[in-house]
Amino acid sequence: MTKTVSLKEAWSGEANCLNCSLRTSVLFAGLQQADFEHIHEPIDQFSLKPGANLYHAGDRGDYMFTVRTGVLKLVQYLPDGSQRIVRIARATDVLGLEAMLEDNYHHEAVALHATEVCRFPARLVRELSQANPGLHRELMARWQRALNEADAWLTELSTGSARQRVARLLLRLVRDRETSECQLFSREDMGAMLGVTTETTSRTIAEFKRQGLLVETAPNLFLLDIPNLRRIAED
Amino acid sequence: MTKTVSLKEAWSGEANCLNCSLRTSVLFAGLQQADFEHIHEPIDQFSLKPGANLYHAGDRGDYMFTVRTGVLKLVQYLPDGSQRIVRIARATDVLGLEAMLEDNYHHEAVALHATEVCRFPARLVRELSQANPGLHRELMARWQRALNEADAWLTELSTGSARQRVARLLLRLVRDRETSECQLFSREDMGAMLGVTTETTSRTIAEFKRQGLLVETAPNLFLLDIPNLRRIAED
DNA sequence: CGTTTGGTTGAGTGCGGTCAAGCCCTGTGG
DNA sequence: CCACAGGGCTTGACCGCACTCAACCAAACG
């Protein structure tokens, strides 16, 4: 099921944080030029194909990651072997915060679309954050953001009918986007996000398409009828 | 529905952190005697009756809280008005972490049992954490703990059949406890934790009682058959 | 080409939601 | 003291949504 692609194969260069295009919205946003000069270890960039694994649950958390483009899912397994997606990460999101606490990773991190990430040593962040109130604060903000997401998944994506959940997921995918167009995930993954089966997800998406709430403008690219989806989401 | 009890009525004294009985497991565990001397603002203790509200979603987050005894629920409302409990807080847990970021509270915090909390100004923690790597680290650990809880609620308490969810909730309530005895919540609250209706929760609990998985030793105090509940929880 | 993988659709069933009634306990007021 | 009301828990009857199992189709791929 999981294509195993070692990160080595996915290496795509060394990052230049100082001139990073995401500089203003990224974890290191608050750092000064002088701080960057204290970064001796290299910060590498990786490209992940859909299905590629960034890290496994239980792996030693030596690194943290910033998503540059694309989407990854964070997956946890249940005692009975079934899986549940507990969060997704997109551009500017940080992955592996638990590495700050010298903890192992808590999830499987798997790319859903073509994805680029920057990797940096957790030790580096630990050191910088001691002296750097801005980074310290930014870290807390990241944790809080993850917590907000987790709460929202519980209240919005794990509550109500399947129709409502699918609608809420769709709306969530285009929030804070300029366009209402979005690339969907596999029905299986969407099901694992919503706590419903693949078939139910497929049926619901198909129904939305028939009702014109969802228009496929290109293969696997959909335009959303936001107002009507919102009606369904709130019921 | 919500009994409104102002915190003023619930005031039960001024805390003595240095000699706190929870000192070793609490947010301020890492502080030195010298640090405490820099705390000028008073740290107050409060007693909450079941149903009493500690803070409301949207209130200014000027304070953070440590739970001394008892249990509180953190509640979020859905667009349609129904409520979902996203977490519970028990002894040594910290409430209102979002106040660190000068954010408003994100939940309703309501006591489920008789509860005692300590209240301290968020500003105090912000200041202390600048200079105090231990506290800094402890804060991150608290955030991570909350996140772990959130993930577990999603995978354990919002997935699977109602029987499984109820069993998992019960097991969760006695984890890391010396005894397998525990005080349950109202069926309505348990339902709001599990994403099922009050009736389904009631039926399931009643069935567990008939099957001897749950023995009522005193009014609303239950002894759990952990091994068999675990069997149900895992399938 | 056949094979595989993901999406869709169908038929049947059962779990859990809904609506409603009844029970027990507590508190309240006549 | 009893009558009554109210809230929380339980139980019943009914129904419908979503799960299960299965077939089928289209696109991708060797």
From TrEMBL, chains A, B:
Query: Keywords assigned by UniProt?
Result: DNA-binding, Transcription, Transcription regulation
Q: What Pfam families does UniProt report for this protein, alphabetically? A: cNMP_binding, HTH_Crp_2
Q: Does the keyword Transcription belong to this entry?
A: yes
**Gene Ontology molecular function, alphabetical:** DNA binding; DNA-binding transcription factor activity
Task: Identify the taxonomic lineage of the organism of origin.
Answer: Bacteria, Pseudomonadati, Pseudomonadota, Gammaproteobacteria, Chromatiales
Residue ranges occupied by any Cyclic nucleotide-binding domain in the UniProt entry: 27-103
The record ties this protein, via PROSITE patterns, to: CNMP_BINDING_3, HTH_CRP_2
SMART domains membership: cNMP, HTH_CRP
* Name the UniProt record assigns to this protein: Crp/Fnr family transcriptional regulator
Q: Which GO terms describe its cellular component?
A: cytosol
Q: Which residues form the HTH crp-type domain?
A: 160-227
Keyword Zinc applies? no
The chain's coiled-coil residues are none
- From which domain of life does this come? Bacteria
